[in-house]
Each structure stands twice: as C-alpha cells, then as structure tokens.
Design brief:
Elements: H1 2-8, H2 21-50, H3 59-71, H4 74-83, H5 85-111, H6 113-120, E1 127-131, E2 145-149, E3 154-158, H7 163-177, E4 189-191, E5 196-199, H8 209-228, E6 239-242, E7 245-248, H9 267-276, E8 306-307, E9 312-316, E10 324-328, E11 331-332, E12 340-341, E13 344-345, H10 352-368, H11 370-374, H12 395-404, H13 414-435
Antiparallel strand pairs: 1-2, 2-3, 3-5, 4-5, 6-7, 8-11, 9-10, 12-13
Helix pairs in contact: 1-5, 2-5, 8-10
Length: about 425
C-alpha cells in the first residue's frame, strides 16, 4: 500500500510519513477485522475449552495456549475460515476494501493538495496517520476519515458529495447578511462531487459566561434553521461546541420527507406524528416519552454521561479461557456537543432563555424574508440538485442488525445471514401494503 501510494504521489516523498502512516493504516484494517471476527473467535475459544484441548495450569495459561498454539498455526486458522465461509468472505472483502479506500484517500489528497492548501491555509504538507470509521459508512461501506499531519493539523475526508454542506454554508452567509444578532460561523468545505474535504473543528472551552450565552443563542438559531429545512438526526455526534460557536458537522439528513403508515391513527400514532412535525424532529432537543424510558438521552443539546438501562454485549474475563460476550450496562454520552467553562459543562437547562431567544429571532428573520427565502433565486433553491440521505428508521436499528449479523450462527451459511436482513425488508413491505 505504501509503495503504491508513494508512487502515485506527484510531490516529494516527504508527503508521506513512512514510519507512522503505514502503521496507522494497518491498525485501522486490523481493528475492523477484529471487530468482525471477535464473536467467532470467542466461541471457538469456548469450544476448545469444552473439548479439553487447552493446556495450562491457570485460566490465563490456557488462554495463552489457545492463541500461541491454535491461532498461530496455519492449519487451525484455515479450519476456522473453512467452518465459517461467510466470515471468510467478509474478511477478504473488508481487507481489500480497506486497502483500496486508504490508498484512494491518499491519492485524492495528493491530487487536491493545491486547492486544499488555498482554501484551508494550514500546513498539510506531511501526512502522518489516518483514523477511519469515524461515523456512519457510505457508498458500499466507505467511511469518514480524519487525516493527521506532522504539523498537528487535522483534515476531514468524507466519501460523499458535500454539496449540502456547501449550500448550508451559503444559507448561513445569507442569514448573517440579514444582520442576525449573532453571526453564525461556517465550516470550510471543498466539495469534489463524489467526495469532499471538510475543516476539522476542535472542541474548545468557553472563555467567559458571555460566550456560553452566545453559544446557546446561536444554537437556538440553528435549531430554527434545521426546523425550516425539515432536518433530523442532529444528535450529540453531529454537533461540535467550539468556544462560543456551535458547528453542525454533517448536513446529509436535511429535507427529510414525512410519510404515514396508518390510515386510522391511534392516539400514540397521532402523538408521534405531531412530534415528527415539531422542532423535536431535528434531534437537537431532548425528548422522553416517560420518566422510565429505557432510551438513552443522545440529543444534540444534551447527551450527558449516563448509564444505559438497556444492556449491550461486551467482552468479559478478558485474557482467560473464561472470556465470553456478556450483557452489561455500559456508560454512554459525554461527547463534544456541549460547551464547557472552568472545566465544567454548561448545562443547557440553565440557558433555555438564550435557546428560545435565538430560535425566535431566527424564525422571525425567515418570516420577514419569506419571499426571498423561497424564491427560485433564494437560498432554499440552492439545494435543489443535492442528494440527501433518507432515514426511515433510527440509525441504531440498522447498527443493531449489522452487529447481530456477525454472530457465528449467521456466518456459516449465507442464507442464514440474508434471512436476518430480510426481517427489515419484510417490515418495510408490510408498512407499504398497510398504507395502500
């Protein structure tokens, strides 16, 4: 990979850090393959233990024996791959894909370097490492990557068109030109149609409490914009608090269509419909259907550190022959979406007046400039040819199905794994038939 990437670059060989870059790429691919195969490896460990094949006086010794005498032997590795042909195919595909995607990003960075340098005006002269799988995957499993440079600077690569992000910046500039009380900063974007480069935003502390108020006032204004654009999915991972400025870092879920699945609505269905047509749809504001709700609070304005009531599978008894996947409550939250001052988070409930004021001022601005806003030369029409991501279900639903599909029982026969995903397809068909 490195030699091919180096040959592909037209600039100095110093463009690539030959000591750290290959290691980071291999680490990314290794972690991906480990995540895909860990359930199967744990099951095989337990199978060997029950069969009495592990040697050692202690549980740690027997664990070590499994890896040094079983997994280190080619014939044993081949046996696992033979017994789980679906896993084998997935591992081969992901390895090829990982190599190709990292190489593609390096080549694109080299090809776009002059434009990147002109726009971002930072020292991106020497690529040190790459962080992959930074968010949801796109277009056959491509992922967002963060490129780290020897200068300490970072650059975000996204494997999709950034037209919506670019036009959102133009909308913010239009708003700022209307003398909105607090100017809203934009994130620099270089759109290359099928992919793009985005400025990396650091999570930074507020210097004064006045800056905290400015942050929440601006956030209120952004909520009004997202509400107008029928946006959703702006949870804690899609907002960065950088001093007095909130930044929205993913604009692919704006202009979401609403659709009904019931002709005769129950009270619950009507309530859900009302919520979906309200400001809560944006995902920025927290919402709970009951005090005993098991759902985590992951809104864009909240997402504080919390223990999930629902349990997740995690590794237990690591490093012993008792290692297994068990259900445990795990901590959740504590992301970079909330402003902090004096090393403490500035909780949003203390700044509700600022959020409301920012929302009202922004909404009033839209009303006063409604004709220009919706005209064919106005900022809404700038988005007319952009592609957006349609999210008919909570993204956690898809993640749960994908995670479950890597259980060993779905990795021996392809039809078993397909049958699992067909549950999603069947539920979509039922909803469509019910509507008809």
């Amino acid at each position: 990979l490195y030699s091919r990437g180096k040959t592909a670059t037209r600039r100095s060989e110093k463009f690539l850090d030959e000591q750290n870059l290959p290691y980071s790429i291999l680490s990314n691919i290794y972690q991906k393959l480990l995540n895909l195969s860990i359930k199967t490896l744990v099951q095989e460990l337990q199978v060997s233990k029950i069969a009495g094949e592990l040697k050692g006086e202690t549980k740690e010794d027997r664990y070590s024996y499994y890896f040094t005498h079983f997994l280190s032997q080619p014939e044993h590795r081949m046996e696992i791959l033979y017994n789980y042909p679906v896993l084998t195919r997935i591992l081969v595909e992901e390895t090829k894909k990982g190599v190709q995607e990292h190489l593609k990003v390096i080549q694109r960075l080299d090809s776009d370097f002059e434009k990147i340098e002109q726009l971002f005006k930072k020292d991106f002269s020497r690529l040190k490492s790459v962080e992959s799988d930074m968010g949801d995957t796109h277009q056959q499993g491509q992922s967002v990557m963060i490129l780290n440079f020897s200068s300490g600077e970072k650059l975000v690569y996204k494997p999709r068109s950034l037209a919506t992000d670019l036009h959102f910046n133009q909308l913010l500039n239009w708003v700022n030109e209307k003398n909105y009380s607090f100017q809203i900063k934009t994130i620099k974007v270089l759109n290359k149609q099928k992919y793009g480069w985005q400025e990396f935003v650091n999570h930074q502390e507020c210097s004064t409490y006045a800056e905290v108020k400015q942050f929440y006032t601006r956030l209120g204004g952004l909520i009004a914009i997202l509400y107008i654009l029928e946006a959703t999915d702006f949870h804690l991972e899609n907002i960065i608090a950088s001093g007095a400025d909130p930044f929205l870092i993913d604009m692919e879920s704006i202009f979401q269509n609403s659709f009904d699945t019931e002709t005769s609505k129950s009270a619950i269905a009507k309530t859900v419909e009302e919520l979906n047509n309200s400001v809560f749809r944006t995902g920025v504001l927290p919402i709970k259907f009951s005090a005993n709700s098991l759902d985590p609070e992951y809104s864009g304005v909240g997402g504080e550190e919390q223990e999930l009531q629902l349990e997740n599978y995690v590794l237990d008894s690591i490093g012993t022959d008792n290692m297994r996947m068990v259900l445990k409550k795990v901590p959740f939250g504590g992301k970079e979406n909330r402003p902090f001052i004096d090393k403490n988070y500035a909780e949003p409930e203390n700044y509700s007046d600022e959020i409301i004021s920012g929302f009202q001022n922004m909404y009033s601005l839209f009303i006063l400039n409604k004709d220009e806003l919706i005209s064919e030369s106005g900022p809404i029409y700038w988005f007319k040819n952009d592609s957006v991501r349609f999210i008919p279900r909570a993204t956690q639903t898809y993640a749960t199905f994908q995670y479950s599909s890597y259980h060993p029982k779905y990795l021996m026969k392809g039809e078993d794994r397909v049958r699992l995903f067909n549950i999603l397809a069947d539920s979509s068909k039922r909803a469509s038939n019910y509507k008809q």
